[in-house]
Design goal:
The complex is a heterodimer of chains A (253) and B (750).
Chain A: E1 7-8, E2 11-12, E3 14-23, E4 31-36, E5 57-59, H1 61-69, H2 72-75, E6 80-84, H3 92-104, E7 108-113, H4 122-133, E8 137-141, H5 147-154, H6 159-170, E9 174-181, H7 189-201, E10 205-212, H8 218-223, H9 238-248
Parallel strand pairs in A: 4-6, 6-7, 7-8, 8-9, 9-10
Antiparallel strand pairs in A: 1-2, 3-4, 3-5
Helix pairs in contact in A: 1-3, 3-4
Chain B: H1 14-17, H2 21-28, H3 44-62, E1 68-74, E2 105-108, H4 114-123, H5 130-139, H6 143-150, H7 153-161, E3 164-165, H8 181-200, H9 209-234, H10 246-263, H11 275-288, H12 293-307, H13 316-321, E4 330-334, H14 346-357, E5 365-370, H15 376-389, E6 393-396, H16 397-404, E7 408-410, E8 416-418, E9 422-426, E10 429-431, H17 432-441, H18 466-498, H19 502-505, E11 513-521, H20 523-535, E12 537-542, E13 548-554, H21 565-583, E14 592-597, H22 603-608, H23 638-646, E15 656-657, E16 660-663, H24 665-668, H25 672-688, E17 693-698, H26 701-709, E18 720-723, E19 726-729, H27 735-743
Parallel strand pairs in B: 1-2, 4-5, 5-6, 9-11, 10-11, 11-14, 14-15, 16-17
Antiparallel strand pairs in B: 3-10, 6-17, 7-8, 12-13, 18-19
Classes of the chains: A alpha/beta (253), B alpha/beta (750).
């Protein structure tokens, strides 16, 4: 998978799906959330499949920053900017430039990613390292533990995603880990246990969250003419959520 | 310098030389920086009385909204014997006084309009005494009949077509706030002496219209003051002298307010800024050891219960405009003084705490004069109360203080006036969305197909041209503002003549300043329509006579509510153009004109009376309320919407810019503490940008739908929500208005 670049007259542009001025769950405090266009994963439960491919609108880092900075009055000392998607790391150069502008104004920055574009190739990690200079928090989705199951769920394996988590841990970068809990799909006991042990081995995890599966995305799949395979799947019960939380050991964070 | 022993322990001098409550407050109040932990639970007496009152409210609902009505006695200061929540429990009431002889019984008030007073009775199944009809039609004039006798045919047409709406021409105008604190601080006798001095110094002997009128008005004020003493006597109190302690201060002040609501049935009958004032009395008694915290809270709980009992007899068309039986007993807390000290006292907490002690309630209309510089503890308590009750509103003290000082009261929903120094002529609304349709159709109404406005040249092209529309719109606005201001001039002339607010004016300086409040309806639809015409293509759809009755929009266009300067600049242009045109016209009694973007719940009725608009809104669909963006226009979430509204300069709309937002509790944070922190940050961010007002609701649409379908559930008896400009019990809204509230954007978790 290659990074995606949009240049116009030598200025990099980000392909943006949508903007939300009032996010309160994607990072600490009040947050402005930027949803990037484009993702290489095809998660069965994806609730915004319209961000997978196709056109968003193109913004320069400065244009986007000027737009977002209008909201700094609301952030005070704990809020800030979160870039989500789609997969924000696919547009890493744009993201780096955007966050560099934010850090000039001392704004808290978070990237909400599934880690899929990460590889250990030296020139690629150099770019990632550059982005991390301007990133305060990585919110990382761990979708499955075993690579085969991850591939079945998303279309890709996850060895590189685990490697990214380790890299972040070793480089002292704050992490929030999230796991979408889908009954009879991502709730295997062995998998959750192993994932919990992995998380425990990381040194920089500040928070672990279970996101209970909802079928909110289903109408969008239908609209796009895609086959939604989880239409009979229910939202997990409180007991099921509690069990998963215990297996992941979320109380420890 | 005069002195009363009742003032022992109070500091300062100027307020003892002249009537000057602000000086008294500034010299004596103690800012409170602590948290809510000192607050007391309701006493047994409070619980019993509130239980009784809830029973009465339930009975009132089961009888269709009116418990009892007077059909024989014309309401006056002394028309009724003493009334209590429950005759057998009257010794429990720490604050006494009702509008009539029975709780929630509505008085007969014919001076604003005999027909409305009678219709209010008959539509509720009561028959007014025919003698009263005879008196008020044959022997005496009333405000409404006088107005209609003088209206021009064009004014009547505008009223009928709803291009000018909500005019106070069949009832009392309201919005005049007496400085009720004066009764407590000075006692009635001193106030009479001062007014007699004013009368003796009124004019130099040359009898001009103005002087004659003012002399008569002062004389009426003096009579009203005397009447207040008589009224208090009926309840066994002598209010000739200043109040001696906190309980008397609360009671004296309430008698001042009671005098107002016994004699006027204004749309808004505000209480004013009383919390810091009362705190001085309460603190003195607590320091003396003569009052405990439980007793202090009990006084405030009982006072608030009285404000919750104020009722007026209304007609169905009024209830459609202002749904849910509101009286706008608006009462302010907090704010910051001119010297930089915040004005939060323990009694500001006590007033908010009534929403916990005696349940959420629409009245009094509790208003927090907000600044990000208020103490953190208080901001957090206010946010906590908002999240728990959705019953309070916020107004930006940082933008109001430079204009009105630090002793202003909110005289209606959101409009400020200096307490005891100013009054406002209330002025309903001009329907600016309909005015745009008139500009397109050459003054022909798009629903009635009648020529209402002057026969200007209509637009004949298939597609609307922006420059042509703007030119014609400004011309039509010139006509509309003239018609509107002059209609109001006529109404207020008659109101002063036939329904003068003697009781309230007796508690206001004789040398009073007057503002003239106009209003805008359909704001967001005009803005979006002009954006559609400018940035997209708008095709007209005409009926057989060639009148444009619908529009088709081709392409995208920016909409107000997304922090998009293209649309928001259009919003500023609409506001500035309107207020500048209003200012070109003479306003009654040399008042200062202002405007508001505030519709109350009338957005539903105004929308119903207005044809399709070029922004894609279909004929008859409700307007967005107040300064809110149109439904469905907001694409970037709550803060983008707030930023758009925050751009409207308060100084161009000094009568207020009302914004109502609903947040789903799950969207606000995971824990209570997180929700409080986030809400405080939202308000700090919004108000620091110079925004004026915010109604905050915190609940999900599921709750609204369940409440609409199961109004009988106990849990919904006091379920209160903020609508544009006031709060209301959701079960008391009409079904159409309930659906309107539900359909509005609820800002959910993303």
């Amino acid at each position: 998978m290659k990074y995606r670049y949009n240049y116009e007259n030598g200025v990099i542009k980000g392909n943006i799906h949508s903007l939300e001025s009032f996010g309160l769950v994607d990072g600490p405090g009040v947050r402005y959330v930027v949803f990037m266009q484009g993702c290489a994963l095809r998660c069965k439960y994806c609730h915004n499949p319209e961000t997978w491919s196709g056109g968003g609108s193109l913004w320069t880092p400065q244009q986007l920053f000027d737009k977002v900075y209008r909201y700094h009055e609301y952030w005070q000392n704990n809020g800030g900017i979160t870039v989500s998607g789609g997969e924000p790391l696919l547009q890493i150069e744009f993201l780096t430039e955007f966050f560099r502008l934010a850090k000039e104004k001392n704004i808290h920055t978070a990237v909400d990613t599934a880690g899929q574009p990460f590889t250990n190739e030296p020139d690629r990690t150099a770019k990632f390292e550059e982005l991390m200079k301007f990133t305060d928090l990585v919110i990382l989705d761990l979708k499955e533990w075993s690579s085969e199951k991850h591939k079945a769920l998303t279309g890709k394996g996850n060895e590189n995603i685990k490697a990214m988590a380790v890299w972040l841990s070793e480089h002292g970068k704050d992490l929030w880990i999230r796991h979408v809990l889908v009954p009879n799909l991502t709730d295997g006991e062995e998998d959750l246990k192993a994932m919990g042990e992995f998380i425990a081995s990381l040194k920089t995890v500040k928070k672990v969250e279970i996101l209970p599966y909802h079928a909110f995305g289903m109408p969008k799949w239908e609209k796009l003419g895609l086959d939604y395979t989880l239409s009979k799947t229910e939202t997990p019960t409180q007991d099921e959520i509690k069990r998963a939380e215990e297996l992941l050991g979320i109380k420890n964070y | 310098m005069i002195h009363f022993e009742q003032w022992d322990g109070f500091r300062g001098r100027l307020w003892q030389e002249e009537v000057n409550v602000r000086d008294f407050i500034q010299r004596n109040y103690e800012p409170y920086n602590g948290d809510k932990s000192f607050l007391a639970e309701p006493t047994e007496a409070t619980k019993m009385l509130w239980g009784e009152l809830q029973k009465l409210q339930k009975e009132e609902r089961s009888k269709g909204g009116v418990l009892d009505m007077d059909t024989d006695v014309v309401s006056s200061l002394t028309s009724h014997k003493a009334g209590y929540i429950n005759e057998n429990m009257k010794d429990l009431e720490k604050v006494v006084g009702l509008q009539t002889d029975k709780p929630l019984k509505r008085a007969f008030m014919p001076y604003g309009g005999i027909r409305m007073a009678e219709q209010a009775c008959t539509t509720n199944g009561y028959t007014p005494n025919p003698e009263l009809h005879k008196i008020f039609t044959e022997y005496s004039q009333n405000h409404s009949d006088a107005v209609f006798s003088a209206y021009t045919p064009e004014m009547k047409k505008c009223r009928h077509a709803h291009i000018i709406t909500g005019l106070p021409d069949t009832y009392s105008r309201g919005r005049i706030v007496g400085d009720y604190r004066r009764v407590a601080l000075y006692g009635i006798d001193f106030l009479i002496t001062e007014k007699q001095k004013d009368l003796s110094q009124c004019g130099d002997g040359v009898m001009l219209d103005e002087i004659i009128r003012q002399r008569e008005e002062i004389a009426k004020q003096i009579s009203a003051l005397k009447g207040m003493k008589e009224m208090a006597k009926i309840y066994g109190f002598d209010i000739s002298l200043p109040a001696r302690n906190a309980r008397e201060a609360v009671q004296w002040l309430y008698f001042g307010y009671l005098a107002a609501v016994k004699t006027q049935n204004g749309a808004a009958m505000s209480v004013g800024r009383i919390s810091t004032f009362l705190d001085i009395y309460i603190q003195r008694d607590i320091n003396n050891g003569t009052l405990t915290e439980e007793e202090a809270q009990e006084l405030i709980d009982h006072l608030v219960m009285k404000f919750r009992m104020v009722k007026f007899a209304r007609i169905p068309s009024y209830n459609q405009l202002f749904s849910g039986d509101p009286v706008w007993a608006t009462l302010e807390v907090a704010g910051i003084g001119m010297d930089g000290r915040h004005m939060v006292t323990k009694t500001d907490y006590r007033f908010l705490h009534t929403l916990e002690n005696i349940d959420p309630s629409p009245e009094p209309n509790l208003t927090i004069l907000y600044s990000s510089k208020l103490p953190e503890n208080f901001k957090r308590y206010a946010a906590y109360i908002s999240i728990k009750t959705s019953s309070v509103q916020y107004e930006n003290d940082d933008v109001m203080k430079p204009v009105w000082g630090d002793d202003y009261s909110i005289c209606c929903c959101v409009s400020a006036t200096q307490t005891g120094k100013e009054i406002q002529f209330f002025g309903a609304r001009a329907n600016l969305a309909k005015c745009l349709l008139y500009a397109i159709n050459g003054g022909v109404d798009e629903k009635e197909f009648e020529q209402v406005a002057p026969k200007y040249a209509p637009i004949t092209s298939e597609y609307l041209d922006y420059d042509e529309v703007i030119e014609k719109y400004v011309e039509m606005l010139k006509w509309l503002t003239g018609m509107y201001v002059n209609t109001l001039n006529l109404i207020h002339y008659m109101h002063d003549k036939y329904y003068y607010e003697a009781a309230e004016m007796a508690l206001i300086d004789t040398d009073v300043r007057r503002t003239f409040a106009t209003g805008i309806a359909g704001f967001s639809h005009v803005v979006d329509s002009l954006c559609a015409i400018k940035y997209a293509k708008v095709k007209t759809i005409r009926n057989e006579q060639g009148i444009v009755v619908d529009y088709e929009v081709e392409g995208d266009f920016p909409r107000y509510g997304n922090d998009d300067d293209r649309a928001d600049d259009m919003a500023l242009w609409v506001l500035k153009t309107f207020i500048d045109l209003v200012k070109t016209h003479h306003t009654y009694r040399n008042s200062t004109p202002s405007t508001s973007i505030l519709t109350i719940t009338s957005n539903v009725v105004y929308g119903a009376a207005t044809g399709a608009t070029p922004d894609g809104r279909k004929a008859g669909v409700s307007f967005a309320p107040g300064a809110n963006p149109s439904y469905g226009a907001e694409q970037n979430g709550l803060l983008a919407s707030l930023n758009s509204v925050a751009k409207l300069p308060y100084v161009w709309a000094l009568d207020g810019i009302s914004n109502t937002q609903t947040i789903n509790p799950d969207a606000l944070g995971h824990s209570e503490q997180e929700r409080i922190t986030n809400l405080v940050q939202v308000m700090d961010g919004y108000f620091n940008q110079g925004a004026h007002h915010l109604n905050v609701n915190v609940f999900g649409t599921e709750k609204l739908i369940d409440c609409m379908n199961h109004p009988e559930k106990e849990e919904y008896a006091n379920f209160t929500i903020r609508v544009s400009g006031y709060a209301v019990k959701f079960i008391n809204l009409t079904r159409k208005q309930q659906l309107d509230v539900i359909s509005r954007t609820c800002h959910k978790v993303i």
